[in-house]
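To close the chapter, one final illustration. This time we ask the reader to focus less on the individual chains and more on the assembly as a whole: which components sit near each other, and how the overall shape emerges from the parts.
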Amino acid sequence: MNEPTLIRYDYKKRTLAEMEQRAADAVIAMMRRRSVREFSQQPVPRILIENAIRVAGSAPSSANLQPWTFVAISSKSFKQKIRVAAEETLKQITKKFSPQYCERLASVGGTVDKSAVEEAPWLIAVFAKQPPAEHLHGARTYVPESVGIATGFLVAALHATGLATLVDRPEPRAFLNEMCGRPADERPYLMVMAGYPVEDCLVPVIARKPLEEIAVFVE
Ligand SMILES: Cc1cc2nc3c(=O)[nH]c(=O)nc-3n(C[C@H](O)[C@H](O)[C@H](O)COP(=O)(O)O)c2cc1C
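The assembled structure is written out below.
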């Protein structure tokens, strides 16, 4: 059995008062995040996206497999091709949605119009990589869980940077693999659009479930 090499954890201990303030600040900062569906054409420097992806790549992952690839696209013609293909696929998919689900989607601002895919300065396609079977030895690798956490880190980092985001399903999947030049063992997981919101950008009024509804404490 291989023993890990250990180093001292770079932990910064804070006073309780400091921690309470930081926790309150984090709530305010993160509660301001909203999905934006109208992006400004103002370019976003690549370094900002690189740094957000660095943060995403620091996410915890099962057995530290880091089973993700982030393909960051700013090419207008590339994004346009993905938009056209995504809209076509979505038209087919939405035919299968129940009227209740369509209503729910519409009420939170979801649309079949994928203009954000093309208009956001950056489209980040997140791919989940399945490890080779010979490495698994029958073990579960929790790839979707790990990539979900990394995508959360990515969205939080982009928001902390001062950019707006929109998360979307990655459609059409085979096309995304081909367009992004990713191998078959990488599955399109999500797409994250990032940029500045348009001036006076509007977002739908939505309610967040209160703490009592989403948290259970066992003390
Ligand atoms: C997996 C996933 C898929 C989503 N798909 C769409 C989509 O297809 N179209 C859209 O307009 N918004 C989409 N969204 C954004 C959600 O509608 C949005 O996060 C939700 O309404 C909450 O709003 P908020 O992000 O402003 O808090 C998606 C979000 C996630 C996490």
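The pocket of flavin mononucleotide is lined by residues 34-35, 37, 108-111, 167-169, 190, 203, 206 (CB under 6 Å). Strands lie at 68-73, 122-129, 164-168, 186-195. With these observations in hand, you are ready for the problems at the end of the chapter.
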